[in-house]
Design brief:
single chain; about 90 residues; 3 strands; about 15% strand
Length: about 90
């Protein structure tokens, strides 16, 4: 994965699986190798791993649109490669 920023337009009723598929396609990476995070309204890093977190991200984007008087809101999602751990027995 490179460190570039890209825009992914999504509907407000998207489910987490569809969102992950779209992001994986945009960055040309396997969805299994994709881990997403975002900052919540308090600035805390949150993993984006279920529908509740997806809905929180959408609410942040809606708030951004309202605050900035735009038709579309923005929310930043950070992509990371998952950490692979294994127990090597020898």
């Amino acid at each position: 994965m490179d460190s570039s920023a890209k825009i992914v337009m999504i509907p407000t009723d998207i489910d987490i699986a569809d969102f992950i598929d779209r992001v994986a396609a945009k960055f040309d990476v396997s969805r299994r190798k994709l881990k997403c995070s975002f900052r919540d309204e308090d600035g805390q890093m949150m993993d984006l791993s279920d529908q509740d977190e997806m809905e929180m991200l959408i609410e942040l984007a809606k708030e951004d649109a309202k605050l900035n008087r735009r038709e579309f809101g923005r929310a930043e999602v950070i992509l990371r490669k998952p950490l692979l751990l294994w127990d090597r027995q020898g």
